[in-house]
Specification:
The complex is a heterotetramer of chains A (997), B (200), C (104) and D (419).
Chain A lengths: L12 E10 L2 E7 L3 H7 L6 E2 L6 E2 L12 E6 L2 E7 L9 E5 L25 H4 L13 H13 L14 E13 L3 H12 L4 E4 L15 E2 L2 E2 H13 L4 E4 L2 E7 L3 E7 L14 E13 L3 E3 L12 E3 H11 L6 E6 L3 H12 L2 E7 L6 H9 L3 E4 L1 E8 L3 E10 L4 E10 L2 E5 L2 E3 L2 H5 L5 E3 L4 E3 L7 E3 L9 H16 L11 E2 L20 E3 L4 E2 H9 L5 H8 L12 H12 L3 H4 L11 E2 H5 L15 H6 L2 E6 L2 E7 L6 H14 L1 E5 L4 E6 L3 H8 L12 E7 L5 E11 L2 E6 L4 H15 L6 E4 L4 E7 L3 H8 E2 L13 E6 L2 E6 L8 E7 L3 H12 L4 E3 L2 H11 L45 E8 L10 E3 L10 E11 L4 E9 L1 H4 L3 E6 L4 E8 L9 H4 L1
Parallel strand pairs in A: 1-7, 8-9, 8-15, 9-12, 15-28, 17-24, 18-19, 18-24, 19-20, 35-46
Antiparallel strand pairs in A: 1-2, 3-4, 5-6, 5-7, 10-11, 10-29, 13-14, 14-15, 16-25, 21-22, 22-23, 26-27, 30-31, 33-34, 35-41, 36-39, 36-40, 37-38, 38-39, 41-45, 42-43, 43-44, 44-45, 47-50, 47-52, 48-49, 48-51, 49-50, 51-52
Helix pairs in contact in A: 4-5, 4-10, 6-7, 7-8, 11-12, 11-13, 17-22, 20-21
Chain B lengths: L19 E3 L8 E5 L4 E7 L4 H12 L10 E3 L3 E7 L2 E6 L4 H8 L5 E5 L4 E7 L3 H5 L17 E6 L2 E9 L2 E7 H15 L4 E3 L1
Parallel strand pairs in B: 2-12
Antiparallel strand pairs in B: 1-12, 2-8, 3-6, 3-7, 4-5, 5-6, 8-11, 9-10, 10-11
Chain D lengths: L5 H9 L17 E7 L3 H14 L4 E4 L15 E2 L6 H15 L1 H5 L10 E5 L2 H15 L6 E4 H7 L15 E5 L3 E2 L2 H14 L3 E3 L4 E7 L2 E7 L2 E10 L5 H7 L4 E2 L1 E13 L7 E4 L4 E5 L4 E12 L7 H14 L7 E13 L5 E4 L5 E5 L5 H18 L13 H4 L16
Parallel strand pairs in D: 1-2, 1-11, 2-8, 4-14, 11-19
Antiparallel strand pairs in D: 3-7, 4-6, 5-6, 9-10, 10-11, 13-16, 13-17, 14-15, 15-16, 18-19
Helix pairs in contact in D: 2-7, 2-10, 3-10
The chains are: A alpha+beta (997), B alpha+beta (200), C alpha+beta (104), D alpha/beta (419).
């Protein structure tokens, strides 16, 4: 047994010894220990260094609000920084290290910052480092030079770069009642609601349910409170309408009673189970919520209140009663309220000497004096602690008589020898979730605390959360809340009887003892009482300015203990009551949440992959895949030793010489069905579709309402009332929503249904001089000759036993056909076509060759229909019907959209016969040193095997009028400049004789 | 065996479909995953006011009498039907030819028939932890009172749109777009590892 | 945030696509009133308080909904199909809708 | 009022910091001013500062509903850049950049503008070409831009996943080295102190409740602290533009208010040096001097004045964050907050005279307002002083939407949630 570990008591299992290391030193603890309790049991006093002054710090708390004892937990190369030691459950093999110190925790070179104390006051950064106004360090340079060192000095732990192999999962949950907090109030609420038959979830951030019952040493129904809690939990655990979530922090209260919680599923295990996540993120939609989140004890602000060995009173009580660990042998207390006396008794019982209790109040009740006597402690009523002594551990403190009425210190200081000082500055209800839910807290003068407001969402409070600090009240309120939340009738049964330590819940309104020395308000950010007063002097008096100017409450503990003392000091400086200074609104999360849990199941697989039916074939046949939105498409089918350019040139060339085949399954496909389908398409497209014959297809253009080009594609009329619309791959979803919007919102009278059938059809486009011969060789049930299948005609037939639909249309500019089959047959049809094409020299081609052939033809895609171009800009004005209105027709002629200096589509030919780059600009005169005068840019470029030239499509100011003139490409980013000829965008076969053939 | 007129359609799950037990199965298999591969999946949509006629047509073709209510549905183990949107229904059948059968009875005056037999993949998840695993993906309440047997739901998991029919107390049939099916299947297997699963 | 779809019931906001101000009126397709067109395309009511807006249940039944939602509190006071009352929609759609209307 | 310097800091420290004076006065409103600026955020304060400094107009009041800087200047992700595609935007933001580069000196207040660069990651060759187009557009307007290869990016940001196995592998990026970050609150405080030192009255806790009129002309405002008259009333209330314009009787605007969430992690030792953006979604991140990773993503996507976000965007942003930086799974998100943005119909701002006589309007900043602060104030001051726009803000009119002269950097059309 270590000298500070008691032989009995607490939740730890003394028979199980656990081995771990901290800063490389091996320690042992017991099952049930936190890193904090295990180290404390071994006499460790120094846990961390403060953020700014690098002061040595010990444990302040025993829970989630710990500001000082932050550690990094290592799992191999994976690092978890900034975890409070109070929240780390030890397990065999745990490796933890301290942070923000060099070279070691005990000897930290940056502790020299303490010497600059007054200079490093609040806001000092804003007043200096601006540097000289001339010379080499003018502008931002001097600041950036200083900042380099400041950044290295700042920061707590280090993040890793190694990928975390752990799993993170998300879970959606629905329940009638979510109870947050499992103290006596929460347990009663959960039990009562469950008895009503409600679906209940009970969450607590601690591993052990019970809250204060685990350490208060009160008795409930004649049994120790902890036993009562254990029994209540066991009853709940057996019910199938209850889900218990230990180690679960409910951190966010969002709209419509949606709450977010983080369950630490396997952090406390040596190894997670197979498939078991590390963290589980619960998104809980609760009909009602019971907030039984308890309260945080506040520190007192006095000189030296941050010295290792100074701790919150209830934290010491927890260490003694829950973990069997004494935080010191000679313990002193400093309080402004009755609750600390309970701690004094507990520590005495656990074996410590309680040497003194300093209480700022001059008058103390007889019950309290009795408790002090029980603790065998000397009472110093009307006294305050004015200093602490010691280095990396407390050795003593100084007391002075204190006048509560005016805050004055009177008489001589008196020294007391102690190795641990417990403080209690009253309690702040944990109202964070209620505040997140949208309401402002209300100040209660008696409790000297912000209490929860009236609910703005469906929640009910119970226990210390509401400012009812006694267990009896918690139990009564918990039951009432459980009933109300479950919507049940009031239960007449008898409430459990509580035997509690006496005490008045109201503290004296004392927050700070003003004496010489640094008095800390925000421990983690090193914000002192003087910093708050400096902020006041400089006019940063609103609570938000105070927070931002001093960084009070912005550290990882988010001001859980520092907020109210900070406000109180500002209020005093302003001579105003605390509520007039205000309170900050709490925002999610209540406590820091792992980013892994929030990313949850998408971690490592951000978006699902969309695969065409021929995907596996492409992979097996040397395709290099290209990610297009969520889709994967072949970019090239490379041969050994080929570059990308060699491959696409070969593919395009072969297509134009014999035939090529490309997977077009990703094109958006929408079934447009119903008696008004044709009329609807007339409104949607700029051109006419009602005149399209059944069995024919037509190219269509859509505009947005604002008159700009939106999308294009062919639409096939399969029946009188049955159309198959195709869209670009990228816009498939947008077009679908566009159509649905008009049908549902604008023209509900139209009888038209639209259905996404993108996935229903596999599509293969086969084109080239021999394409028809290939089809003729493998398609049965129909002829594919010119008469049966003219340009834009559609036939149905069979291919290798599979029904197919074939439309003769062309993107490549060749005689080409799109062969559609049921997607389940796509690979089968594809293979049959490839096989049939072999004697004809058919090649498979990818996006690069597809792009090359479309550039040669001057067809537009998303690079040109970029949301800023009009039909006219793209020379598609021939498609704007004058016979009917269509979406966008009313807006397309506005002055800005018909201006003469708009960017218009042109073709470019490189006169220096060097390759172009996408995104290069066009200028009239090249100025390599000082590029300027852009008149447009390249949208797509390639080497054209058909023309034997490097060509590009470009959008150029007044481009149409410039055709036949010369300009220059200007690409300073890639240092490519050179002369070009501006030509029509139709480079190849402009009259379409090849595809009409 | 169901008779097919054309070659067996290929499943997009193929390379990721590993029959056998996986994950934490040593502690018991609590999830069974399979692909049901119906021969037909059809979407039916009625014009406003014509829903009753469409429901009658469904009964004529499948013999299934749709229960009342949004998302209502039922399954006889061979044929399944459920509502997924106002006036819209998904019907699946082990046999092929459902679209043709409906085309005969759903006249243009009643509504439309859209064949999705190739476009949707039907994945079945069964077992005591089916609700637990599905809750990892979809933000809908899978509890039996909220989602009764036979009923259908349209929902999404990020980009993956899904229609889900509960075909028994602990069994759900999930219809997803074919192009997303492999991604979804992989995610479903991954999420089932924790409880142990078997692919059949 | 949850939106109670009249067909699908309460669903997370992640399933919905916002389609904006529901007060806008599209001029008749053949209208030459360019002020009205401009107002329809570009001008929005942007109230601090109850807002009449259009949402699509794009991750569910895909119907468009008219939602009255408070832009200060995000509280939703009513949800209905945009497509009128869907008279005669029979048993499919009405039950859940009635529920939503009762709530509103 | 004392100049700030290392010397004054030391001198005051020796005196126990007892002699520091308020950074700005807290005057009561006068009965009338030459100019009233509604909105004590970054843009309003900068406008007041430049009115005084550049145009000698000092009889100016800035009226602020809450505490100074309580709007978006106090709740953004602090990135400053001028890497736009369209010339009107690039010119304007580059002017802002130049003002930023000298701002700390000019204000005698360290706004900690740190030119640590902004890198846009490209994930497909097509996207790389898009960025090249943008970078070349910048270069042709004299703005710095360079393309970076994957290898260069890996060297610059070792924590970034540039592996080919990533769902969206990095293929390269567009870097603007002069871009960076600034300390957002300091910008508000620095401008406030600068304006105050030139005689501007900054009136906090003063809510505008209506407008005073002289015939058609706006001639002042009614406030929670009484009526205040002015020859000119200028609005810089981005986020609340809809609300305040309704007080002036203008019901509809080409603007929707949307909530944008932002996030910060716990403090970490240096992890990334630059601002970095993800190309296959909407995610951006930088690291503050204090060590917190500051990051954000898309707007929530519906009208809101609530400064309160919802979960879907939280989840999306974190997923994108880990897609780029897999080492951050165990790092923890410390705080989140929401700001209300004026989302305009083309994603670009409005700085103009009118729309009512006597009124001047500055709004529509979407989520790009912070970096614009100096140029916005500078151009708005010019517009107010001269009753006509400067060349730099001449394109940012209110009537450009109706006229088809939109400045749509993203090409999304009149769909505010997509800008």
């Amino acid at each position: 047994m270590s000298p500070r570990r008691a032989d009995t008591g607490g939740r730890i299992d003394r028979l199980k010894t656990i081995r771990f290391t901290f800063d490389g030193t091996a320690y042992t603890g017991h099952a049930g220990d936190t890193l904090a309790s295990a180290l404390l049991a071994k006499g460790v006093t120094l846990y961390g260094r403060s953020f700014k002054y690098h002061r040595p710090r010990g444990l302040l708390t025993a829970g989630v609000e710990e500001p000082n004892a932050l550690v990094t937990v290592l799992k191999g190369e994976v690092r978890e920084p900034n975890i409070p030691a109070t929240m780390v459950e030890i397990h065999d093999g745990l490796v933890a290290i301290s942070q923000n110190r060099f070279p070691s925790l005990a000897w930290d070179i940056n502790a020299v910052n303490q010497l600059g104390g007054n200079i490093l006051s609040a806001g000092f950064y804003y007043k200096t480092f601006m540097g000289p106004v001339f010379g080499p360090l003018k502008g931002t340079r001097f600041w950036m030079f200083c900042e380099h060192f400041i950044r290295r000095a700042a920061g707590l732990g280090s993040a890793g770069t190694a990928k975390d192999p752990a799993r993170y999962e998300r879970m959606n949950a629905f329940c009638d009642v979510l109870v947050v907090g499992s103290g006596p109030a929460g347990l009663m609420a959960a039990r009562t609601a469950a008895d009503q038959g409600a679906r209940v979830m009970l969450a607590d951030l601690e591993p052990l349910f019970g809250g204060s019952a685990n350490w208060s040493e009160e008795s409930i129904d004649g049994a120790p409170a902890a036993d009562w809690a254990r029994r209540a939990v066991a009853q709940l655990a057996g019910r199938d309408n209850v889900r218990l979530l230990p180690r679960t922090t409910v951190w966010g209260y969002y709209d419509n009673n949606t709450l977010a919680a983080l369950e630490r599923v396997s952090d406390h295990k040596d190894q997670p189970g197979k498939g078991e996540p590390r963290h589980r993120y619960w998104a809980i939609r609760a009909k009602s919520v019971v907030l039984a989140t308890g309260a945080f004890e506040r520190p007192l602000v006095f000189p030296g209140n941050d010295r290792p060995g100074v701790m919150l009173a209830h934290a010491a009580e927890r260490y003694a009663n829950e973990f069997g660990v004494l935080p010191g042998e000679r313990i002193a207390l400093f309080t402004n309220n009755d609750s600390a006396y309970r701690a004094a008794v507990a520590l005495k019982k656990a074996g410590a000497a309680v040497v003194a209790i300093a209480d700022v109040r001059p008058e103390l009740s007889p019950e309290i004096r009795k408790l002090a006597a029980e603790a065998e402690a000397e009472i110093f009523a009307g006294h305050a602690v004015v200093a602490t002594e010691g280095g990396k551990a407390l050795s003593g403190l100084k007391l002075q008589r204190f006048d509560m009425a005016n805050g004055a210190l009177i008489g001589d200081a008196r020294s007391i020898h102690a190795d641990c000082l417990l403080m209690s500055g009253g309690w702040s209800p944990t109202i964070h979730l209620a505040s997140q839910a949208g309401a402002k807290a209300e100040w209660n003068a008696a409790r000297q605390a912000f209490l929860p407001p009236k609910p703005t969402q469906s929640w009910i409070g119970a226990g210390a959360f509401t400012g009812s600090f006694s267990t009896a009240e918690a139990i009564a309120e918990g039951r009432a809340a459980g009933l109300a939340a479950a919507g049940g009738p009031s239960a007449p049964s008898v409430l459990p009887v509580v035997e509690a330590v006496p005490g008045d819940p109201d503290p004296a309104p004392v927050f700070e003892i003003r004496a010489k020395g640094k008095s800390f308000v925000d421990f983690q950010h090193d914000v002192t009482a003087e910093d708050v007063r400096l902020a006041h002097r400089e006019g940063f008096v609103s609570v938000e300015h105070l927070k931002r100017y001093t960084t009070l409450g912005m550290a990882t503990d988010q001001g859980k203990s520092s907020n109210v003392p900070g406000l109180a000091i500002m209020a005093e400086a302003l001579g105003k009551p605390i509520p007039e200074v205000g309170t900050t609104r709490f925002r999610p999360p209540f406590a820091p949440v792992s980013i892994g849990s929030l990313a949850a199941e998408r971690f490592g697989d951000l978006k699902p992959e969309r695969l065409t039916p021929m995907h596996d074939w492409h992979l097996a046949n040397s395709a290099t895949m290209y990610s297009a939105g969520l889709w994967y498409r072949p970019m090239i089918y490379g041969h050994a030793g080929e570059t990308v350019e060699q491959a696409y040139v070969r593919e395009a060339k072969a297509t134009r010489e014999s035939a090529g085949i490309v997977d077009v399954s990703t094109l958006g496909k929408i079934a447009v069905q119903g008696p008004d389908a044709a009329a609807f398409l007339d409104r949607v497209y700029t051109n006419m579709f009602s005149t399209l014959a059944v069995g024919k297809a037509r190219y269509g253009l859509m505009l947005r309402e604002d008159g700009l080009a939106f999308d294009d594609g062919t639409t096939w009329r399969l029946g009188e009332q049955d159309f198959l619309m195709t869209t670009t791959t990228a816009n498939a979803g947008k077009v679908m929503q566009h159509l649905e919007y008009f049908l549902d919102v604008i023209w509900p009278e139209l009888k038209v249904h639209v259905t996404s059938v993108t996935d229903e059809w596999a599509g293969a486009a086969i084109g080239g001089p021999k394409a028809r011969q290939i089809l003729a060789a493998c398609v049965t049930g129909t002829s594919v000759d010119n008469a049966t299948l003219p340009f834009m005609g559609i036939v149905r037939g069979e291919l290798s036993g599979v029904p197919v639909m074939i439309c003769r249309l062309s993107f490549s500019g060749e005689m080409a056909f799109e062969v559609y089959s049921g997607a389940g047959h796509g690979a089968h049809v594809w293979e049959a076509l490839v096989e049939a094409g072999k004697p004809f020299g058919l090649v498979t081609y990818g996006l690069e060759a597809l792009g090359t052939m479309r550039i040669e033809k001057g067809h537009v895609t998303g690079a040109e229909i970029d949301g800023r171009t009009t039909a006219r800009d793209l020379h598609l004005d021939w498609m704007l019907s004058k016979k009917k209105p269509f979406i966008g027709s009313a807006m397309m002629d506005r002055e800005g959209l018909i201006a003469s200096d708009r960017l218009e589509l042109v073709g470019l030919i490189a006169l220096d016969n060097l390759p172009f780059n996408g995104g290069a600009h066009i200028v009239e005169e090249v100025d390599e040193a000082n590029p300027h005068g852009s008149i447009g840019h390249i949208t797509a470029c390639c080497y054209s095997p058909a023309l034997g030239r490097h060509i590009a499509l470009a959008l150029v100011k007044g481009g149409k009028a410039r055709q036949g003139t010369r300009a220059h490409v200007s690409d300073p980013l890639r240092n490519r400049f050179g002369p070009v000829e501006i030509v029509s965008n139709h480079f190849f076969d402009p009259d379409g004789s090849r595809m009409h053939g | 065996m169901v008779e097919r007129q054309s070659p067996e359609p290929l499943s997009p799950l193929e390379p990721e479909f590993h029959v056998g037990s996986h994950g934490n199965f040593e502690h018991g298999v609590e999830i069974i995953l399979t692909e049901t591969r119906p021969g037909s999946i059809v979407q039916l949509a009625a014009w406003p006011g014509e829903e009753k006629k469409l429901i009658a047509a469904i009964r004529t073709v499948t013999g299934l009498a749709l229960p009342d209510g949004a998302g209502g549905g039922l399954s006889d183990g061979v044929k399944s039907v459920f509502g997924f949107a106002p006036g819209k229904f998904t019907v699946a059948d082990e046999a092929e030819g459902l679209a043709a059968a409906f085309a005969k009875v759903v006249t243009p005056a009643i509504g439309t028939v859209t064949d999705l037999s190739h476009g949707r993949i039907a994945i079945r998840i069964a077992g005591p932890k089916a609700e637990w695993v599905l809750a990892k993906f979809f933000a809908i309440d899978f509890a039996l009172p909220a989602f009764p047997v036979g009923a259908g739901r349209s929902t999404t998991h990020h980009d993956i749109f899904a229609q889900i029919q509960r075909t028994s107390a602990d069994q759900f049939d999930i219809y997803v777009f074919r192009s997303f099916a492999r991604s979804f299947w992989k995610a479903l297997c991954h999420a089932s590892e924790e409880v142990g699963y078997e692919v059949q | 945030m949850l939106i109670t779809c009249p067909y699908c019931g309460p669903r997370d906001v992640i399933e919905f696509t916002y389609q904006g101000d529901g007060n806008r009126e599209r001029p008749d397709s053949a209208s030459q009133n360019f002020e009205a067109w401009n107002a329809y395309v570009y001008d929005r009511l942007n109230p601090a308080g109850d807002h009449n807006e259009i949402w699509q249940h794009s991750g569910g039944c895909r119907a468009h909904l008219r939602v009255v939602r408070n832009t200060l509190t995000h509280e939703i006071s009513s949800v209905a199909f945009v497509r009128g009352d869907h008279q005669g929609r029979g048993d499919h759609g009405s039950a859940a809708r009635r529920k939503a209307e009762d709530k509103a | 009022m004392a100049e700030y310097s290392a010397f004054s800091l030391l001198a005051n420290a020796l005196k126990g910091n007892k002699d520091w004076k308020p950074a700005w006065r807290k005057p009561d409103p006068k009965a009338s001013y030459d100019v009233i600026i509604i909105g004590g955020g970054g843009h309003g304060l900068a406008t007041a500062y430049y009115l005084a400094k550049e145009h000698g107009i000092t009889n100016v009041a800035v009226v602020e509903k809450g505490w100074l800087g309580s709007g978006n200047v106090g709740r953004n992700t602090t990135a400053v850049r001028s890497n736009y595609l369209l010339p009107a935007n690039t010119r304007f933001y580059e002017h802002s950049m130049k003002l930023w580069e000298n701002l700390s000196h000019e204000l005698n207040y360290n706004v900690m503008f740190s030119q640590r660069g902004c890198l846009n990651l490209a994930h497909t060759p097509a996207q790389f070409d898009d960025y090249a187009r943008r970078g070349n557009a910048m270069r042709h307007l004299g703005v710095d831009a360079e393309l970076m290869t994957k290898a260069e990016i890996k060297r610059l940001i070792p924590a970034l996943d540039v592996s080919d196995s990533a769902r969206f592998p990095v293929v390269g990026g567009l870097m603007q080295r002069r871009a960076g970050t600034a300390r957002h609150d300091a910008v508000a405080w620095g401008y406030a102190r600068g304006a105050d030192r030139r005689g501007v009255d900054i009136i906090e806790n003063c809510e505008v409740t209506g407008f005073l009129r002289d015939g058609d002309r706006i001639s002042g405002v009614t406030t929670s602290r009484g009526d205040i008259r002015a020859r000119k009333v200028a609005m810089a209330v981005a986020g609340s533009t809809g609300r305040v314009m309704q007080l002036a009787g203008i019901e509809t605007m080409p603007i929707e208010s949307h909530v944008l969430q932002a996030f910060v992690t716990e403090s970490l030792k240096p992890f990334i040096d630059t601002v970095v953006t993800f190309g296959m979604g909407h995610f951006y991140m930088s690291q503050s001097d204090k060590g917190g990773l500051i990051y954000g993503g898309d707007i929530d996507g519906y009208n809101s004045y609530a400064q309160r976000g919802n979960l879907p965007v939280v989840d999306e942003v974190m997923s994108e964050m880990l897609a780029l930086f897999p080492g951050l799974a165990r790092v923890r998100m410390l705080r989140s907050w929401g700001g209300v943005c004026d989302m305009s119909m083309d994603g670009s701002p409005i700085i103009t005279t009118g729309p009512l006589p006597g009124m001047y309007l500055n709004c529509g900043w979407c989520y790009g307002g912070f970096k614009a602060t100096p140029a916005s104030g500078w151009c708005f001051a010019w517009t107010i002083a001269k009753d006509q726009p400067h060349d730099l803000n001449a394109p940012f009119t209110l009537d450009r939407f109706h006229r088809g002269l939109v400045i749509d950097d993203k090409g999304q059309g009149a769909n505010p949630r997509l800008h």
